[in-house]
Amino acid sequence: MATVMEMAAEIIAAHASTTPMSKDELLAELTEVHAALAALEKGEEPAAQDTQEEAAPVVSRKKAFGKDKIYCMICGKDFKTLSRHLKTAHDMKPGEYRKQFDIPRSQSLAAKNYSESRRQMAVDRGLADNLAKARAARGKKKK
């Protein structure tokens, strides 16, 4: 039978083959998995890690909302927009994320430059004009 360390190493190797991880993340993950496996081997309940994640943000709010990138305050990874990451990685809705870290609704969950480039693209394509025309046509139709 494989030792606890060998089993932990196999689990981490499988996880690292599909997910890019830094050296520090690998070591932290190996330590967590080893501790959980050792506890299971002794017949104990593994320590829960979820409460630590919710307690303190990994990134400060000031650093989280940058011009070019927005950082997830749960895991510290950077993105252009955060909504998809929250759903896929943390199974969380943007409203829950805002509530957990006390983020006002006026704060966008997208990088400032990304939002500005999308706005400019919409202006260049004339999407605002098309929307105004459609609303005017709908208003005349109702009368």
Task: Give the structure's gist in a few sentences.
This protein is mostly helical and 143 residues long. It contains 8 helices and 2 strands.
**Overall outline:** elongated
The fraction of residues in strands falls at under 5%
Low-confidence segments, given as residue ranges, are none
Give the C-alpha Rg: 23 Å
Mean pLDDT: 86
**Oligomeric state of this protein:** single chain
In the sheet with the most strands, the strands line up as 1-2
In terms of structural class, how would the helical and strand content be classed?
mainly alpha
Question: Could you walk me through the main structural features you see in this protein, from its secondary elements to its overall organization?
Answer:
By secondary structure, the chain is an all-alpha fold. It is 63% helix and 3% strand. The chain contains eight helices and two strands, in the order ααααββαααα. It has a two-stranded antiparallel ribbon with strand order 1-2. The N and C termini lie far apart (79 Å). The relative contact order is 0.07.
Features:
single chain, 143 residues, mainly alpha, two-stranded antiparallel sheet, 63% helix, 3% strand
